[in-house]
Amino acid sequence: MAATLLVLNGPNLNLLGTREPGPYGTAPLDAIESDLADAFPAVAFSFRQSNGEGALVDHLHTAHEQARGGVVFNPGGYTHTSVALRDAVAAIDPPVVEVHLSNVHAREDFRRTSRIAPACVGQITGLGATGYHLATRYLLDA
Q1: pLDDT tens figures, 113-123
Q2: DSSP letter at 106?
Q3: Most buried residue among 73, 86, 107, 141 by CB atoms closer than 10 A?
Q4: What is the model's pTM?
């Protein structure tokens, strides 16, 4: 049976490709998703993006039943503020890898603290879209 993974993206990631290309690159989100699906054809991916915190919590709850292989999660700006997302990650069984396109540790001070990371199995930051591939590989090998 193919692994089932949720790739979940938070606020403003729907604007990739046009939003701040310096830290985030020029690839739109659908291209990142397409490249990931092409690189891992045996994986059943579910791709979701929301600008709303509650919708992201709902997607994580759904992953508890449907994405048994794990979750690749870029919480965007909620990384630094959301106790609700941290608690949702901690509440579900599938492992979650936090991913960021930019190196959050080399940016503004407020971006250096993740409320989500302590509930995750790992964090990949600063490697662009490659971070999604590395997170997927980790979840498949775990």
Answers
A1: 899 999 999 99
A2: G
A3: 73
A4: 0.93
